[in-house]
Amino acid sequence: MTTAGRPAASAAEATTVPSESVDRLPGPDVVRAVALIGVVVMNYHGYLIFRADGRVPDSTVIERFFDPFTGPLSTRFAATFVLTAGVGITLLTRRVVAADDRRAITRMRWRLVRRGIALYVLGRLLDQIWAGTIILFYGAMFAIAALLFTLATRWIVAIGIAAALAGWGIVTWAFWQTEAGESVVWLYQPGWPPTQYVVDVMVNGTHPLLPWFVFLCAGIVIGRHLDTPNWRGWCGALGAALFLVAAIVSEQSDTAFTDQLLSRHPFDRGLVYVASALGTALLAFTLLSWFADRAEGAASLLVEPLRRAGQMTLTLYIAHVLVFNLLVDWLDLVQPGGVATALTFALIFWALAIAAGSWWHRRYGRGPAERVYRWIGG
What we know:
This protein has helices at 11-14, 26-51, 61-65, 76-99, 102-126, 135-145, 153-179, 185-188, 193-202, 209-223, 231-250, 256-261, 271-294, 298-310, 313-330, 339-364, 368-377. The chain is mainly alpha-helical. The longest helix has 27 residues, at 153-179.
């Protein structure tokens, strides 16, 4: 038995690190594709706001709903994307974990570390033209996950909870320091570059590991239960419970401190926000994977291009950055506007991206970015 409590496989299975293309499940790929659609919508809306006067339109219900910074959809797609990455880590590593082959496990650890470093470096480069990209945080999560995938489920859960508590604790401490007149600039704006790289990926930025690592841990746990018959029942129920409890608790604030403590604002890093976003991600993964697994007839015509696009999300993510910069910044063909402009721009991009991605995947297999990524990371 392994530390994760799974039965051992044969020695022959354990000698080679498996390819994730073997017995690939459609559900995670479809969830990944849909989550990236939402990421593109939120990113395009937010960056068009940055290119304008920086004021977020909020005069209508639609504008408030699609507010990319504080609206109910803010960061929810990204959280679902990270959760699905955790599922993918389990699917990638489960054979070597089950076999309990130390050499294969070591090779898998280095494989995840190389992939994490590759994503982190790519993220740092993209950050020069797309500030706030999730890719560098994604890379750091993969590198840390290399140490965790053999741990028992209870430890994965504990680490995820600890990440959420640490993120909440840091912002709460910073709140009290600010209230007392003390400066926390050294934490939120570290000056020395090496410190900045470490502190920002852990605490600051758009998707810091404290608390975002909880979403990856949740995905790792879900991935371990995909072969059990009732996983969607408890996963969906847990997601709904977290979301509803967070919604109820967040309405109880009546002071500046409780506003901070019970905030569902994504950049407050609070426990209520984490619970709400995790609940949303669990529900999304449950429902979308159910649809992908059971789609037949006309529904399968929708699932198939999403499934293929979901295997090319790194290529499509990079493409959405380059397309935005080309059409908005360089050619000046798209002008900053309201939510209608952002939605139209994002949906046109994604319709074309799904069609192109599906065609590419059928003809060539892996996307160009995925090929380079696998060449570097194994």
